[in-house]
């Protein structure tokens, strides 16, 4: 197998040795803590084997927070390195690895799990279902994602990180120019995580189409459910492209094929083409659910129905279709010729139309509304101006001729951070503050939340606004240093200071989670925001079967109207029936472990070991095929006991605004 | 099939069958009895094949019937859209302009 033991652990760089020590200490602390508090059984029964969509969602969100931390550290390291000209904090190779992992982690392992986590927690509740369509597949989705994420994350201490950018363009990413194992991590870890994402897409399409409660037609679905449905469809359409592209990359790197190489008839630009055929829809995969979150939050805290519901739906579908038709704008400078560039310029600018419709709809929702300035609402308000800056600079970049100037500069980097941070990160924070009481039964502290918002928002603008101007002055992206004569130094320093404020904001968020977990009041009602949709019609935290009796929907904003009419809020004891629930399963966790091991061997090109480990995958599939567990039934008495704990006998939902 | 075939004569099946025969013989005629160039023959046969596949979907495979009729149509249209975008789009982008030379 030719195992090179001496090359496995990265040694020599003090930063990395420090991380290695930190990782070992953390693992010891976790294992020790679990053993000391005798929590192994609890961890296995309640979390590792769970198929409950709410717990899976919480695990996704936890992974998102962790990965945000990791990706954020990468960002801070880059900002430290470029704070002054000619810094020697990181060398060129280390810098390459850091901007690569920063990009991959922030998009695929931070934004995606945050959003999929919120989708998991909220969507089945919003449509009045008891779980997703395929609960065990859902657990498998999470564990494959987690397996891929962990495999990717160990790269910087074991074997070396990928260093060809998050886009991993050939020929640089090929074996010829990047012989190390770093880019194998990219090809294989993303493949494993991508499998999980694809399954999530399928699961949510079926869930939303087939499991809506009685009376909920498509046009009565809450907006977040709509965006989740369309996102899932884009996932199913676009992710297979990435799967194929990564498989071809794996063949090129591991088995010497020539799909993307310069020699022997390969086409390096085919990689860029396939990557962005997936990559651009991917942008909408992360931003559409975020739009859904804003729609829910803005409607709730403006105390009005969402303005222009139908036009919202049409514009999401429009964005979904157009998202497949713009990919070439990521490589206008490839030289595809004026016809190609003109067509893709036009499609790119067309996307601004449905997006603009949505922005105006949010503004009109707020018009004449009685706006409550909760933390969730602050994030939504902050989103609009910042995202518009991102959108307008996007249209500037979309003009193919002008793009020759902006291409590969920090202007572009500033643009996509202005789109992705307000569009995704602000949405995730809004969603977390909004749905936190539903997930955990207590609220995040609103005052700390406001500090979090202002620090993060100011830090974000101070970090990325200077990069527009640096880019216009010609500062290129992905360069690890610059000369003092370039005149870039002051703006780079401002940007670095901004990144510290940004990090402080995130620190306040983490502290807020800790503080609220320990000290927040536990007596919040099931509907603390006086909200509009069905997830608020049940207990907080939600009981494992979601609804004692499935609610019936008559119109949009169903729960709001139920409260207005005072109907359907009281549980009638004679309506309670036994509930059929799926059993827990250790199989998804097992699959994550064998996929991780197989992937690890493949990364190091130990083919025989990988083949042996892959047998474990097949065994898992066989075990699943002979699994005849049909779940279990919750008795009426047990339901009555659980329901009586949060409902008063007289019933009704307590109103409580924090 | 049941709710239509039972009540009346299966007229749509017969039309479908005759049209399929017609399209097949047209393809045979173009291939064997004309002197068009090879490329043109391939284009004509290919178009006839796609036409016939579409015809059969509606006449024999009942894509529009059943509770998922609409969804089936949307699925197929979307799949066709995706396939065309990915394949034709990639070929167009990679073979136009100086990038290809």
TrEMBL record, chain A:
It catalyses: 2 a quinol + O2 = 2 a quinone + 2 H2O; 4 Fe(II)-[cytochrome c] + O2 + 8 H(+)(in) = 4 Fe(III)-[cytochrome c] + 2 H2O + 4 H(+)(out). It is found in: Cell membrane. Keywords: Cell membrane, Copper, Electron transport, Heme, Hydrogen ion transport, Ion transport, Iron, Membrane, Metal-binding, Oxidoreductase, Respiratory chain, Translocase, Transmembrane, Transmembrane helix, Transport. Pfam families: COX1. PROSITE patterns: COX1 (PS50855), COX1_CUB (PS00077). GO terms for molecular function: copper ion binding; cytochrome-c oxidase activity; heme binding; oxidoreductase activity, acting on diphenols and related substances as donors, oxygen as acceptor. Its main location: membrane. It comes from the Bacteria. Its EC number is 1.10.3.-. Binds a copper B center. Heme A3. Pathway: Energy metabolism; oxidative phosphorylation. Its cofactor is Cu cation; ferriheme a. Gene3D superfamilies: 1.10.287.70, Cytochrome c oxidase-like, subunit I domain. Residues 36-554 form the Cytochrome oxidase subunit I profile domain. CDD domains: Ubiquinol_Oxidase_I. One of its GO terms (biological process) is respiratory electron transport chain. InterPro entries: Cyt_c_oxase-like_su1_dom, Cyt_c_oxase-like_su1_sf, Cyt_C_Oxase_1, Cyt_c_Oxase_su1_BS, QoxB. It is a multi-pass membrane protein. The chain crosses the membrane at residues 15-37, 58-78, 98-125, 137-158, 185-209, 229-251, 283-301, 313-332, 344-364, 376-402, 414-435, 455-476, 488-514, 590-623. One of its GO terms (cellular component) is plasma membrane. Catalyzes quinol oxidation with the concomitant reduction of oxygen to water. Belongs to the heme-copper respiratory oxidase family. This is Quinol oxidase subunit 1. It comes from [Anoxybacillus] calidus.
Automatic annotation (TrEMBL), chain B:
Pfam families: COX4_pro (PF03626). InterPro entries: Cyt_c_oxidase_su4_prok, Cytochrome_c_oxidase_bac_sub4, QoxD. Belongs to the cytochrome c oxidase bacterial subunit 4 family. Keywords: Cell membrane, Membrane, Oxidoreductase, Transmembrane, Transmembrane helix. PANTHER family: CYTOCHROME BO(3) UBIQUINOL OXIDASE SUBUNIT 4 (PTHR36835:SF1). This is Quinol oxidase subunit 4. It is found in: Cell membrane. It is a multi-pass membrane protein. The chain crosses the membrane at residues 12-32, 38-61, 73-94. GO terms for biological process: aerobic electron transport chain; ATP synthesis coupled electron transport; electron transport coupled proton transport. Catalyzes quinol oxidation with the concomitant reduction of oxygen to water. It catalyses: 2 a quinol + O2 = 2 a quinone + 2 H2O. GO terms for molecular function: cytochrome bo3 ubiquinol oxidase activity; oxidoreductase activity, acting on diphenols and related substances as donors, oxygen as acceptor; proton transmembrane transporter activity. Its EC number is 1.10.3.-. It is an enzyme of class 1 (oxidoreductase). One of its GO terms (cellular component) is plasma membrane. The keyword Membrane applies.
